[in-house]
């Protein structure tokens, strides 16, 4: 299965290859459970399972609009709002300040807060990070407090 996934996996998803192999294997196990009399899978069928697992992963990534947690400094600049240059400049200043303040957070807090700011709930963030829910909740709320404090020292009041 790993050869089939490696064959269909594009270079920009190479870091997810192991997850794709696992997903494809889970699909094969489910099919084996439903069809216990089937003994062998053809190479073309394994390729098709790997391909559908890849397509589903690409759709999930696009739907969630994921941004790598470790690449805070590489976040794109927000689009310029049409019409009001002062509002656009203010939004750019705030975005730069938030990125700068996020860089200053301890890594665990930064990861938890980044997921929270991306729209994930605390339980979702805990699941994604593999942490206990209470730990993630503490990291998010303490991280948000530190973020607010940092922003206020930069002159951005809530």
**Approximately what portion of the residues adopt beta-strand conformation?**
under 5%
The run of helices and strands is HHHHHHH
Assign the CATH architecture of the largest domain. Answer: Orthogonal Bundle
* Mean pLDDT over the residues: 78
* Quaternary organisation: single chain
**CATH topology heading of the largest domain:** Arc Repressor Mutant, subunit A
Separate helix tally: 7
Number of domains: 2
CATH C-level class of the largest domain: Mainly Alpha
Give the overall silhouette.
Answer: elongated
Q: Evaluate the radius of gyration.
A: 21 Å
> Separation of termini?
52 Å
The assigned structural class equals: mainly alpha
Query: Can you tell me the residue ranges where pLDDT is under 50 for at least 5 consecutive residues?
Result: none
Main β sheet profile:
none
Describe the structure.
There is one protein chain. This protein is mainly α. It has two domains: 2-64, no CATH class; 72-153, Arc Repressor Mutant, subunit A, CATH 1.10.10. It has seven helices and no strands. The model has no long low-confidence stretch (mean pLDDT 78).
